[in-house]
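Run: sequence + adenosine-5'-diphosphate -> complex structure.
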Amino acid sequence: MKKSEVLTLLQSIQYPGFSRDIVSFGMVKNVDVSQDTVTIELTIKTKNDEKKQAVVDKIENKLSQYFKQVDIQIIDDGPSQGPSAQSPQSPVQQKFNLDHIKNVIAVASGKGGVGKSTVAANIALALKEKEFTVGLLDCDIYGPSLPIILGFNESPKMTQDRKIIPFDQYGLKVMSFGFISGNETPVIWRGPMVSRMTEQFFNDVTWGKLDFLILDLPPGTGDIHLTLTQKLRMAGAVIVTTPQDIALADVRKGADMFRKVHTPILGVIENMSGLQLKGTVETADGIAQKDLRMVFQGIDKEVTTDEKGNFSFLVDLFKSGGGAEESERLGVPLLGKIPISMDIMSATDGGKPIILSDPQSTVSEIFRDIAVNILSQLAN
Ligand code: ADP
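>> structure
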């Protein structure tokens, strides 16, 4: 039996309590087949040993029909980050009509400009790639950026009974406060108005059935956060920060806010973490200089060019970095680190997020890993 056939068999095993399989959850890290033995490496970031055992039992049952020996190894790829470290979810009164939306995930940041919307859009697309149905709601009334990031700018259409139809862009259901307020209009809204508007985006938008609704929240902790956290039960929140800010009160404030309202914090994403440098070395005649070894002084890097003369490497800009340590100290897992990349910037600002415009790139892979880490956190 081939590795791909084993993977197909594993795709029929659902994670306990979920309708999704363990492969699409990203739990199967490696499969190795040698004659009568199959070795499976799993990462299951749950503290619930019963669930772990249930997955192991199901795999053994399935594969022992085909192999003499089934070797299952659970590898630990990071600190155990169960939501048990956070407050249990309390019965928050749910006033918005969300029966058709399975998981609402908030993407938040302490301040603007850290790449929250860029991250929200790429995560939404990474989840969509995994065949989830995904909606993306830009709640940032003070600077809605989704129409720019996803490259369109029209007014939404209404149904006959005056419900707003979300846009279908790149396979996502998309709605933005910017579509209503107009991108050029500075919006000054007061609390009750924000509250009414927010409510409208849940009750009066024809979202249809969604596995995930990703909320791109405004920076900070204001009226919108209050309304949302009071009125709907979120599956979890993700906080986007930059490495130099991760130690700041910003992240802690955000984390505290979500904890107070019993919204599990799924983790922190460190954006603009280091700088990705790419280039090509060729002679004046355009001949690629392959296997060229270059030493970058000052940043202490040694890189070698590939057969096309290309090189690419990451530079740590902030020596302190320490995202992992800091997030552990705050009691929130680090979901991933995204470097500063010209490609991310031009993709975002060009209206087609990097995961679509350059799906094979390293940073697109990072966004996919982050989406898998979010799924693992939710599976806990
Ligand atoms: P926020 O939602 O936090 O205000 P945005 O997602 O709108 O931030 O991003 C702000 C600017 O930073 C945009 O021009 C975007 O293209 C750029 N940007 C975001 N993340 C990165 C990154 N990792 N590398 C380079 N540019 C980035």
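>> summary
The first strand starts at residue 28 and ends at 34. The pocket of adenosine-5'-diphosphate is lined by residues 109, 112-118, 145, 271-272, 338, 340-341, 344-345, 348-349 (CB under 6 Å).
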